[in-house]
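Chapter summary example.
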Amino acid sequence: MKASFKYLIPILFLISCNPDSDSSFDASSLIVPDYKFSNHLVECILKDGANLLTLEIFLSDLVKDKFYKNNQFRLRAYFPKVNYKNKFILNIQNNSNEDIYSPLINDLSLKSFDQIASCNFITPELKGISLFDSEIIDKTLPNTSEILKCNYNEGFNYGTFRIAVDRFLNQMSSLKIPYQILYLQDELVADNFIWINNFYSEDYSKKINDFWINTPEAREIKNEFLNNAQCIESNIYYSFAVN
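The structure predicted for these 243 residues follows.
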């Protein structure tokens, strides 16, 4: 997977590092994201006799329910680009303060979703924020997504990481790529986070490679990222918004 997406490695800090750090209290630990929504990432597998069309029809009918629209419910499905074996991930996003996850699970059961797929619904609630959201994005279109599971290095946190992120976002803004970044974190596990890249154009890799990846700014940002965090898992998906 990493070899196929080598142009993303310098951006997405996929190399381990163990920098020396001061373990004393730092005011940066008080800086936390201004979370705007909550997420559950639910891993599923299609059952025998079901297919992607069956799944699409079921989910499309589900989100037409007035309950989900009133609660600003958003649903996205991720399908692995490599080694797809009927596995997929549901990204259940709630933009309201009301609990929709428990009612959703109950509703899926009542509508016999378990005949289509088997899912692990025992998943933590993640708080989320969009770090970058290109104004030219049409989020209804299928896109390529990369989901990275990352750990902060010892002595580092969101407060220290934010400096490198801001530099990176300024650079990405200048490229005019239809692009979105989601940052998700379990508030009970502050050392871990999930970073999701959503690319909404087919030539995104060429633009990054041609216009940014080999610049001095890119190398500096890569080093800053490596000082702060390492990503232990990265997977590429076809991603679809369920409307």
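To summarize the output: The CA atoms of residues 132 and 169 lie 7 Å apart.
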